[in-house]
Amino acid sequence: MSGSTIVSIRSLKRSFGDVRAVDGIDLDITEGEFLTLLGPSGSGKTTVLRMIAGFEKPDSGTITLAGKDVSQLPPYERDVNTVFQDYALFPHMDVLANIEYGLRVKGFAKQECRSRALTALKQIRLEGYENRKPAQLSGGQRQRVALARALVNQPAVLLLDEPLGALDLKLREQMQIELKALQREVGITFVFVTHDQEEALSMSDRIAVFNHGKIEQIGTPREIYENPKSEFVSEFVGQTNRIEYDGKKINIRPEFVTISRASSTGGRSVQGTLRDAIFVGASTRYLFDTSIGFPMISTQSNNQLKVGDVVTLSWQEEKEFLVQQ
Amino acid sequence: MLQEISNTMHKKPKLRLVALLTAPILWLVVAYLGALATLLVAAFFTIDSFTGNVIQTFNLGNFHDMFTDAAYKNVVLRTVGIALLVTVVCTVLAIPMAFYMAKIAKPRSQKILVALILTPLWASYLVKIYAWRTMLEPGNGVLDWLLGPLGFSSPGFGGPAIIIGLSYLWLPYMILPIYAGLERLPNNLLDASGDLGAHNWHTFRRIVLPLIFPSLVAGSMFTFSLSLGDYITATIIGGKLQMLGNVVYQNFSINLPFAATIATIPVTIMAIYLWMVRRTGALASL
């Protein structure tokens, strides 16, 4: 990542009653990147997003946007736009009026608003829908209008609050691809909130993993997945076999555990008895009871194993990772 | 026995409908439409000026008198004016109050506020208006006592007093529908508007106001029509000022048909008002 820092967050805190929703966060967001805030519900990721947008005020700490401290500014004085979880389209306005809203508010000439809104409408492939009301659109179309309504303002940062949460799986996957392509095309910094680890891994340049109001780890999807720094991250992003081997605590991802009928080939291996096999389509998750006393999972392409079969499970040492307890 | 009735009813949906609707329809037709029809018919009767008996023959004389006498025209204009002003005052007071209740107050105080708004509705109308009489009393009323040191005085009895009194009486009927409308308005629409660069006033005008318009209409139907028909407030704190209701009331014992003729005016105005409201489309989304 070579760009400069566009958003800089320092010691950010926010409580709701007794709950410390955001508990001291430092985060630098690089210009032009696709950053995902990933975490379970209640981990503080949405609150951070809402504080960047200006919907919530921090109890303490600062948010700097393009070099300017915006922590105490109202939303309408920040050069960011938001795509809301349930879209928040204005129900009494048609698609075009919704998209034009931000431009009209900022006092652009009518013609200018119209032509920019129509361009945005084309970008999201909804030409011909300009006079529809939001209620007459499908979920995916509303999603795209919400996106256009925000992007047409060319904000410094686009904030997306679980924007794909309400869509069905197929549409969701399609929108993930579209969204990523759109981000590359417009070059605007995206800050994307989700609790879906697959979504985070597939779309982001970097992921910040949230837990209990703190960032557990921040890094590229590959770093997060292959080198999780904490037990929480390893559990939340992908699955992990947590075992004791040769008196050492180690972690190994299920897809790195191979199954063979031959006996031990040296290196890292244990004997496993198949307890259960869960078919998940392209692959199968095999659950083993092992000779070292820890249950292990191996995710492999579909295999001819039967419950009760005794096999050798092995893996390469460099695929193991250590985490802080 | 009950089981048998229930079984028969189940087999005969028409009978079920009859059992369900007979009472309410009878009530509507006899008590409501019947009274209105009687009123309308009576408006065309006249009175024997010597005996004071009602003469039941069709006659347009009352309407002729009403339309030609400037005094009645003034009462009509004054009454409509008062009803409109009361509606405006209630709207202006109710919107911020309802907004606070629906969008700012914590859930606990929200419930308390709704209860507080409803409480005055349990008190007798007369008690409340006599309370205002004490407040407005020129010279030794509460308002004079309060405002006197500041160099102001009570408006005394008359038009302003009526507007104050009626606005006070009908305010809950305006707050509650607006509150309900704002409750239904998702908060994130307000967030979205601010996010897109709109200041609060702009958000209020472009987002909030259009979306709660049906609620405003609902509230205004109460404040406007209740004001239009009122005569007790005018009697108690209106001084010499008369509203349509007073004219009806005064004619009631002397010239019943003429009272009925006058009474058709608020009915007509309300019908026109509803028709106008209908054209805005606000009724469809109530």
Automatic annotation (TrEMBL), chain A:
Family matches, as InterPro entries: AAA+_ATPase, ABC_SmlMolc_Importer, ABC_transporter-like_ATP-bd, ABC_transporter-like_CS, Mo/tungstate-bd_C_term_dom, P-loop_NTPase, PotA_ATP-bd, Transp-assoc_OB_typ2
Gene3D superfamilies: P-loop containing nucleotide triphosphate hydrolases
ABC transporter domain span: 7-237
Molecular function via GO: ABC-type putrescine transporter activity; ATP binding; ATP hydrolysis activity
GO-annotated cellular components: ATP-binding cassette (ABC) transporter complex
Protein keywords: ATP-binding, Cell membrane, Membrane, Nucleotide-binding, Translocase, Transport
UniProt-listed SUPFAM superfamilies: MOP-like, P-loop containing nucleoside triphosphate hydrolases
Protein name (record): Unannotated protein
Automatic annotation (TrEMBL), chain B:
Transmembrane segments: 21-47, 75-100, 112-132, 152-171, 207-232, 252-276
UniProt KW keywords: Cell membrane, Membrane, Transmembrane, Transmembrane helix, Transport
Domain ABC transmembrane type-1: 76-277
UniProt topology in membrane: Multi-pass membrane protein
Cellular component, GO annotation: plasma membrane
GO biological process: transmembrane transport
Protein's cellular compartments: Cell membrane
Cited Pfam families: BPD_transp_1
Main location: membrane
InterPro entries tied to this protein: MetI-like, MetI-like_sf
Family according to the record: Belongs to the binding-protein-dependent transport system permease family. CysTW subfamily.
Protein name: Unannotated protein
The organism of origin for this protein: freshwater metagenome
